[in-house]
Design goal:
Blueprint lengths: L9 E6 L24 E10 L3 E7 L4 E4 L6 E8 L2 E3 L6 E6 L8 E9 L10 E2 L2 E7 L1
Antiparallel strand pairs: 1-2, 2-8, 3-7, 3-10, 4-5, 4-9, 5-6, 5-8
Length: about 140
């Protein structure tokens, strides 16, 4: 008799648009440079699992860019996954689920980030951190 337990596994990779799954790609920086209203950046979120998965996102600033250090200021932005707007004002939002096994390349989700109005923005650097968590079902 031969026994070999296989644990449930779910992995995530955040890569440039069209990039392959890379298990070391666990962080990604979207850098708008000098912010402009309506500016858009894209990247892909890849998920693979042998037992199904659930992907959660959480924004440290509840879905806005906040001015770094000193004066207060915010810049709204919109994030969408495969064209579906994600409400990051909530804590730990489920953005994708699947039952069953994925292929080795993983399931690909297209992520877009659009800069909102700059009407109330004071000069300076702005930032938000998004935590992405993937769990097996």
């Amino acid at each position: 008799s031969l026994r070999a337990p296989i644990p449930e596994v779910a992995e995530v990779a955040v890569v440039p648009t069209g990039g392959p799954f890379d298990d070391s790609a666990t962080s990604y920086t979207v850098n708008f440079g000098v912010l402009q209203e309506g500016e858009r950046e894209r990247f892909d979120l890849l998920v693979r699992s042998n037992a199904g998965y659930r992907v959660l996102m959480e924004s440290s600033n509840r879905g806005v860019l906040e001015r770094v250090g000193g004066a207060s200021g915010v810049v709204p932005y919109a994030m969408s996954i495969d064209g579906r707007l994600i409400d990051l004002s909530q804590r730990s939002v489920t953005v994708a689920t699947k039952n069953g096994v994925t292929g080795l390349a993983g399931d690909r989700f297209s992520v877009e980030v659009d800069v909102g109005t700059l009407a109330d923005a004071v000069p300076g650097p702005y930032r938000d951190d998004i935590t992405i968590t993937v769990k097996t079902n």
